[in-house]
């Protein structure tokens, strides 16, 4: 990936997505596994529409650099841009953005795990319980992102014109995205543990500062990486909204986009409710500690 997934602000807005579009899509993931090749069909010399499109190994090729779907060499050389309507091209770009931003997000998650969580010096400093609170179920989140990305990659490589991605979003949201609820719900304890470690363990503070200075982090803080899953699930909903604006009304793609958006909204609400619940529990614990019970 050319850039890390940079979605660390408290509120994700449509304007922010647009301004970061080119940044997020400059990706060349090294972690993605090869997808199954789709056999080419016979090529009639007369019609471009019936040609078997060249496969786009955009996520497997570590040397690839691309900004937009229409800028891909495979797209430009195919002649498909002269066939598609402008609205369809915009839809292709919206779907392509969802895929490339997931690739960038996965790379950042991988960095959180390999650079911070698995650092040997950090392991020696943290107790097992502290590490568990700090990193929560990030390994499960990363595994879900990897599976999701591989399915998206395979879909992109099936045809030079992307058929749909929201059906994949829907399936993964329903079957796998509950890991986000667990991670985000633990955010209250995670933040408290991080602040406490910075205050009580100078060695922890020193190691984190050194790790943050590594060029791999692009100047981003450790806490920026910890908040990635919550920011991603919010942004996914916005990306699907963008697709929904561009699909044809009453089409199959509109139906799948609506389904995907509904399920993502459910997960986001569950994440928010999980945070509120944990926050209330934290407040109750704090009050309980301050109470004095006088017993005869």
Automatic annotation (TrEMBL):
Its recorded name reads: NGEF protein
Q: What InterPro entries has UniProt attached to this entry?
A: DBL_dom_sf, DH_dom, Ephexin-like
Annotated region described as Disordered, given as residue ranges: 9-57
Which keywords does UniProt give here?
A: Guanine-nucleotide releasing factor
* Start-end of Basic and acidic residues biased regions: 9-23
What SMART domains has UniProt attached to this entry?
A: RhoGEF (SM00325)
SUPFAM superfamilies annotated for this entry?
DBL homology domain (DH-domain)
* Superkingdom, taxonomy of origin: Eukaryota
**Residue ranges annotated for the DH domain, each copy included:** 90-274
Q: Where is the composition biased (Acidic residues)?
A: 27-40
Q: Which GO terms describe its molecular function?
A: guanyl-nucleotide exchange factor activity
Give any Pfam family that matches: RhoGEF
Q: Does the keyword Nucleotide-binding apply?
A: no
């Amino acid at each position: 990936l050319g850039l890390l997934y940079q979605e660390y602000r408290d509120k994700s807005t449509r304007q922010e997505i647009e301004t970061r579009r080119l940044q997020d899509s400059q990706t060349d993931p090294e972690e993605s596994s090869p997808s199954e090749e789709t056999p080419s069909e016979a090529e009639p010399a007369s019609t471009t529409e019936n040609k078997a499109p060249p496969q786009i190994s955009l996520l497997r090729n570590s040397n690839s650099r691309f900004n937009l779907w229409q800028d891909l060499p495979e797209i430009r050389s195919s002649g498909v841009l002269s066939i598609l309507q402008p609205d369809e091209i915009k839809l292709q770009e919206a779907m392509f953005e969802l895929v490339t931003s997931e690739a960038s997000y996965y790379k950042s998650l991988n960095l959180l795990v390999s650079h911070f969580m698995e650092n040997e010096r950090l392991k020696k400093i943290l107790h097992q319980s502290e590490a568990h609170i700090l990193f929560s179920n990030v390994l499960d989140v990363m595994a879900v992102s990897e599976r999701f990305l591989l399915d998206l990659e395979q879909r992109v490589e099936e045809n030079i014109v992307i058929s749909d991605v929201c059906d994949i979003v829907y399936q993964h949201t329903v079957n796998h995205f509950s890991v986000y609820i667990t991670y985000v719900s633990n955010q209250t304890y995670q933040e408290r543990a991080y602040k406490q470690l910075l205050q009580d363990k100078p060695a922890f503070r020193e190691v984190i500062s050194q790790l943050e200075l590594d060029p791999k982090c692009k100047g981003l803080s450790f806490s920026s990486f910890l908040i990635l899953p919550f920011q991603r699930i919010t942004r996914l909903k916005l990306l699907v909204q963008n697709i929904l604006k561009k699909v044809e009304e009453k089409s199959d793609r509109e139906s799948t986009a609506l389904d995907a958006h509904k399920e993502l909204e459910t997960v986001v609400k569950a994440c928010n409710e999980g945070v509120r619940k944990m926050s209330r529990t934290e407040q109750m614990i704090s009050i309980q500690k301050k109470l004095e019970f006088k017993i005869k």
